[in-house]
Every structure is written in C-alpha cells, then in structure tokens.
Amino acid sequence: MKSLEGKVALVTGASKGIGAAIAKALAAQGAAVVVGYAKSQSAAETVVAQITAAGGRATATGGDVTKAEDAEAFVQSAIDEFGRLDIVVNNSGIYAFSPIEEVTEDDFHLQFNTNVLGLLLMTRAAVKHLGEGASIINISSSITSLLPADSVLYSGTKAAVDAITGVLAKELAPRKIRVNAINPGYTETEGTHRTGITGSDMEKNLIASTPLGRGGKPEDIADVAVILASDAARWLTGERLFASGGMR
C-alpha cells in the first residue's frame, strides 16, 4: 500500500521547482493533491496533467497566499474537491539578495509578506480542517545556518519560518498535528536558471561547499516531504531537516 493512500495534500507554489516535485511525489504515494499557484496557471495545469497521467488525482487552484481570502479559498478547494485535508506544504516563497544599503521598505514587505505572512495565513486557514495525524511542512532554507552577506531579508524570513515551525509544533501538538520544516541547500530550479545562478561562479562555490559534491534537485527535497507527510514521521514534530547534501 502506498504511504499516503487516502490522504489529501495542499502544496502552495507548486507550479514549478521544489513545489511541483513535492506535489508529484505526494501524488505518487497515493495522496490527492491541490496544486497551488500564484500566476503560472498553465504550469500548474501541466503538473496536474502529469499527476493524472501517472494515475494520481490532482487539481490546480490559483491565488495569493498573502491575502486571507485567497488562503481560505486554497483550503476550501481541497475540501470541495476531495472532501478533507491532511497535509499542508507551505512552499510559496521568493528570494532576492542585496546589501543593506539597497534594502527598501517594498523589498521587505514583498519577501516577508510572501515567505512569512503567507505561511501564517495558509496555516490558519488549514488548521480548522486538520485532524489527528495531519502534517504541516514548511519549506525553509539552509540559509538560516549559512547566513551569507547580502541575504538579510531572505535569511530573516527563513529564520522566522524556523521559529514559527517550532512554535506551531508545540501549539498544535495537543491536537496531534505535526509541524516540521525542510531546509534545502542549493537546489537547481527554474528560479536559479532565471536569476542566472545556475552556471555561475556562485553555483560553483555553493557546490564546492556541499560535502556530497553536487547541487540538489527538486526531487531530493520532495522525497523528504513524503517522509514527513507519512506515518513514518509520526514521532517527528518541531524539527528542521537540512536537506542540503551536508552544506551547513
């Protein structure tokens, strides 16, 4: 029997990259999946098509995680389409790097609203539907350990994600809802190609700093998410799992 048979998952930011890989991996283990997206409807529908072609169940839902009504709509789509909700993966996130002299108020609000407020709104909307054994998985970053220069905003948002994960793990434990974080290291995605990181000296340095000697793939992170979503991780809550090839 597949490890997530009968479960329903909601993955935000799932039209591409790590989110798409997580959505497909959860579906492969039997979960019905809501593929959440912000703007990339066609890409999200492609992920749904790939899941259904492999025999899984999925639907795509668009919205802005920084708006409470959209967060509620994401969750309601899972209830309307599949009748329940068991797994929430808070993957939506953005990143940009700049020295402190160039940080603006708009930069702050953009990153913190998406990476932190969005996670809180999605979790608030979801918890009323989650029961015993449910799993919330927050996608953080190994940047909270590395703390490189020019990352003050992004590092700040992911440090907040780590702290929120720990708080919610304690807050929701009486309801037997588990909350954990995955902290990926450098992972090659559409975003790293778009921003020019892939193929750059930065990528070479990141790989050189990774003991296992390569960059991560979205599937590397997705496999960890499957474990956290399943009963195999029944005794894990409040944890930060560094899926980084040893880069710390």
UniProtKB/TrEMBL annotation:
Pfam family, one: adh_short_C2
Keyword list, A-Z: Oxidoreductase
UniProt entry tagged with the keyword Zinc-finger: no
PANTHER family attached to this UniProt entry: OXIDOREDUCTASE, SHORT-CHAIN DEHYDROGENASE/REDUCTASE FAMILY (AFU_ORTHOLOGUE AFUA_5G02870) (PTHR43639), SHORT-CHAIN DEHYDROGENASE_REDUCTASE FAMILY PROTEIN (PTHR43639:SF1)
Similarity annotation: Belongs to the short-chain dehydrogenases/reductases (SDR) family.
NCBIfam families linked: PRK07231.1
Name under which the protein is recorded: Oxidoreductase
Provenance organism: Pseudomonas versuta
Source taxonomy: Bacteria, Pseudomonadati, Pseudomonadota, Gammaproteobacteria, Pseudomonadales
